[in-house]
Specification:
The complex is a heterotrimer. By secondary structure, chain B is mostly beta strands. Helix content of chain B is 9%, strand content 40%. In chain B, strands 6-5-4-7-8 form a 5-stranded antiparallel β-sheet. A 3-stranded antiparallel β-sheet of chain B has the order 2-1-3. Helix content of chain C is 32%, strand content 18%. Chains in contact: A-B, B-C.
Chain lengths: 354, 133, 390
């Protein structure tokens, strides 16, 4: 079954350039607990990244895209598609991608669109880019996963909903810093989390988001991909999963046979929170910052509603040469200004000003 | 509605695209089609690096309407490494003290919105250089 | 009578105190000042009205002030128009009237400066003021005239390294001069310690570096000397120098933002016309909407070397009995800042000095005066030199 569904393009594709972005503000989640739970209860992560007043998915995407472009070494006019996956696009109607394309100099002979599939909107864009490049329709496509996610004040989501993401320029394997060995997509209609049109905050199914949703989809996608490739966890030096909290990715990693040493590099959620469409992708950038040529990497995303994309990548000789052309993801992780709940409420537009 | 006014400026606003004078090599920002140094025609597009240093700076506490929700915000005149001065907000300053000479780099950020329902306006700001150079 | 029948002289002056005139509209303010000036002129009939104003379209929703104010001031039918050059509107309007009079096209002109700012909230006033900066490259970044002044002041301190409170003297002198001016907005002397502890407006600018923008109106009747009736009560004041110059609008478009080239150029031209040098000037009504501009104007006009303008505020050089008195009725800082009407207030005050009717604010033996107003951060500068005809 899985063999038939393995996604491999006619022309081998890879990542030509990658870039991350994380805003500098950090809310220690004990601040959320202080305001909403008398400081009691467990904390799913340590702290989360929060956007400044002048940031949104468009501005963050632009910086991540510029970082990816710097590492790619290509001219922005060579990019055939700019695709931005997010669930917090600044406009309900009007593309994020056109602003990003204009800002990086990829306009006007370019395909631009926004993608939406909860937290896997970014990896959907990667899948499409592989197909776009792999079919020969274009040489390069820019796929971005970026979010500054919403969480109702006091809700469980508010403890983890962070901001940030990553951009990848997909191109022919010969120029790549890592190549796609194959990918796999798995989707069902599973309503574990949603935000209705015009609603400010999303709703979620609490414990229903676990077994039938996150775990079932990520595990199936990963297992199917590994099976199709004839690989096992031990063949990979690194693995990165969608990270709604610290526990979920660690649990799915363990059940697939991955050890802590394989997932540590990509596990950023304790320090930056859940970056939704950016979550697995920014973890991958962190891995690419340290991976050696030949290393194999597994990336598995998860989007509520629900679906999972799994990718197998192999780092090339070009990776160490090109990674220095843009700031390492850890530089963004370590760049931090701690804020309290009041400042967080202001930055996130939770104060009534009108 | 100022939509078309902002749209017209998108290249320079989003990415600091200016001009270079084909006669005296002067780099020009904002673009003005006439070289301020030699007076000749200068319409060749030029992509500035975005790197520069603080020439002067201050902080705005009493903002004009349209910027009131962002106070306090730092504003600087930046000397771009290619020569021109440019006025812009500083952002992501954090705890770093800003001084004349502080290395800064261009980022594209939200400058404001054309009213509650209008378009979002994006443009250049500068932040302390992320990585020392 | 003057020896030169074609000379342009100040035939009458009038002004309203600068302040919060809640009960007066823009046209009422204008009428008060016009009436006072016309009365002072002995009833001369102006053939043209020049209105200096910068904020009426934004803050009063009213443009086309020429016919409106001509009509309401009882001059329906005369040639009338608005001159807008931001804070330099007044000086530029005087310049236009001067040119018309010099050309011989008209014999009597009325120049009015009027500003009504208290009908709108401070954020709207700040936004209106910001329209005098480069809308596409300064105002869009949240820049206002205060921001520009702060940027200049910061750079001035960096380049020349004067003491931290080196600009305090401008504010202290202005307030001291205003104590004896019954029309001044702030008639209270301030101490150096108060300056040092004043709240910050925009680092390093504090509240005492900023002139209070308020409502005001002032008017001048200017005439060719030949048109004056006999038996004038006061000594005649002649305009012997008149020049306007411009620089780049945006601060960042000037090669050296601390060099107010328009101010320097207009001062030099006006001095040349008057065949005078800075040492000959008895008093200088300069543009002190921000204290840094007082220092920069003194430097640009040739009263101090670059970077040393602040020194004149240390030892009484700028006081009423000093060698170059400035802001003799309190300047914009303490008399009040009437925006685009500033240039008219300056000429009214300078004329009163030269006519010997400055009362307790009289500069002893004042025979020549220079006035200079700046638009924006000095993008426009208009300089006039007045001389008492003896």
């Amino acid at each position: 079954m899985a063999e038939n569904k393995l996604l491999v393009p006619d022309r081998e594709a890879g990542i030509i350039g990658y870039g991350a972005y994380i805003p500098r503000y950090r809310l220690p989640v004990k601040e959320v607990a202080r305001v909403w739970a008398d400081g009691k209860g467990g904390l799913p992560i340590h702290e989360k990244a929060v956007t400044g007043l002048d940031e949104d998915v468009i501005t963050m995407s632009i910086e991540a895209a510029r970082n990816a472009l710097a590492r790619s070494g290509i001219d922005p006019t060579e990019i055939g598609a700019v695709w931005v996956g997010s669930e917090s696009h600044p406009y309900a109607v009007k593309p994020t991608s056109t602003v990003v394309a204009e800002a990086i100099g990829a306009t006007p002979h370019v395909l631009a669109a926004d993608w939406e599939f909860a937290c896997k909107a970014g990896t959907e864009a990667i899948q499409a880019s592989i197909g776009f490049v792999g079919s020969g329709m274009a040489d390069y496509a820019l796929a971005i996963g970026m979010d500054t996610a919403q969480g109702r004040p006091g809700d469980a989501l508010e403890y983890t909903a962070g901001a940030g993401g990553a951009a990848f320029i997909i191109g022919p394997a010969k120029d790549a810093v890592c190549v796609f060995e194959g990918s796999y997509s798995y989707a069902t209609d599973t309503p574990d989390f949603w935000r209705r049109a015009n609603a400010i905050y999303p709703e979620h199914g609490e414990r229903f988001t676990g077994e039938p949703a996150y775990f079932s989809h990520t595990q199936t996608a990963a297992e199917s991909l590994l099976e199709a490739l004839g690989a096992t966890a031990s063949d990979f030096r690194f693995a990165v999963f969608h990270q709604p909290n610290t526990k979920f990715p660690m649990r799915v990693a363990k059940s697939l046979g991955f050890g802590q040493d394989q997932i540590e590099a990509g596990l950023l959620v304790p320090e930056i929170g859940n970056t939704y469409a950016g979550s697995a992708m920014i973890g991958l950038t962190s891995i690419l910052d340290i991976a050696d040529p030949g290393d194999r990497i597994l990336m598995v995303s998860y989007g509520s509603g629900a679906g999972s994309d799994a990718f197998s990548l192999r780092a090339t000789e070009a990776l160490p040469r090109r990674r220095g052309s843009a700031p390492a993801t850890l530089i963004y992780v370590k760049r931090r200004t701690e804020i309290d709940y009041a400042t967080y409420a202001r930055l996130r537009g939770k104060l009534v000003l009108k | 509605m100022e939509t078309s006014q902002h749209w017209r400026l998108r290249k320079q606003r989003y990415a600091l695209v200016g001009e270079v004078c084909p006669h005296c090599e002067s780099k020009i920002f904002p673009p003005r089609d006439i070289c301020p140094d030699c007076g000749e025609d200068a319409r060749e597009m030029y992509q500035f690096s975005g790197r520069g240093e603080v020439y002067s700076h201050t902080t705005v506490y009493q903002a004009p309407s349209g910027h009131a929700e962002n106070v306090p915000y730092p504003v600087a005149i930046v000397r771009l490494e290619e020569g021109p001065l440019v006025t812009a907000q500083l952002t992501d300053v954090g705890d770093q003290p800003i001084e004349i000479g502080t290395p800064v780099e261009m980022v594209t950020r939200k400058l404001g919105a054309d009213g509650e329902r209008g378009m979002l306006v994006y443009g250049y700001k500068f932040r302390p250089a992320l990585v020392e150079r | 009578m003057t020896k030169k029948p074609d000379a342009v002289v100040v035939a009458g002056v009038g002004m309203m105190p600068v302040g919060e005139h809640w009960d007066l509209s823009l046209r009422q303010l204008a009428l008060e000042a016009i009436s006072a000036a016309r009365l002072d002129s002995g009833g001369l009939r102006p053939q043209a009205l020049y209105v200096a104003n910068m904020l009426s379209p934004a803050l009063s929703g009213q443009s086309h002030l020429g016919p409106l104010l001509a009509d309401f001031a009882g001059m329906r039918g005369v040639e009338a128009s608005t001159i807008e050059a931001s804070g330099a509107s007044g000086g530029v309007a005087v310049r236009q009237a001067y040119l018309a009079l010099m050309s011989g096209a008209i014999d009597v002109a009325l120049v009015l400066g009027v500003e009504k700012v208290t009908d709108k909230g401070s954020s709207q006033v700040q936004a209106a003021l910001a329209t005098a900066t480069d809308a596409e490259y300064e105002a869009v970044q949240g820049v206002t005239p205060s921001t520009q002044a702060a940027l200049l002041m910061q750079r001035y301190f960096y380049e020349y390294g004067p003491p931290e409170d080196s600009l305090a003297g401008f504010s202290i002198t202005a307030h001291l001069n205003a104590v004896t001016n019954p029309d001044a907005m702030f008639r209270k002397a301030i101490r150096r310690e108060q300056y040092a502890s004043a709240p910050i407006v925009s680092e390093p600018l504090n509240t005492f570096d900023v002139a209070p923008l308020a409502d005001g109106a002032a008017a001048l009747v200017l005439a060719r000397a030949a048109a004056l009736p006999d038996g004038q009560e006061y000594p005649q004041v002649e305009i012997v120098g008149s020049a306007t110059a411009t620089s780049a609008l945006a601060l960042h478009d000037r090669p050296d933002p601390l060099d107010l080239t328009a101010a320097a150029q207009s001062a030099q031209t006006a001095l040349m016309q008057a065949e005078l040098s800075p040492e000959d000037i008895g008093l200088f009504e300069l543009h002190d909407s921000f204290s840094i501009f007082a220092a920069l104007s003194l430097e640009a006009a040739g009263f101090a070397e670059r970077g040393k303008g602040w020194k004149l505020a240390q030892n009484g050089d700028i006081s009423l009995t000093g060698h170059i008195p400035i802001g003799t009725f309190g300047g914009s800082k303490a008399r009040g800042d009437p925006g685009g009407a500033t240039g008219i207030y300056q000429l009214v005050e300078a004329s009163r000095q030269l006519q010997g009717r400055a009362n307790e604010n009289q500069v002893p033996d004042a025979a020549t005066a220079m006035t200079q107003c700046l638009g924006g951060s000095g993008a426009t500068a208009s300089t006039h030199i007045l001389r008492r005809v003896t």
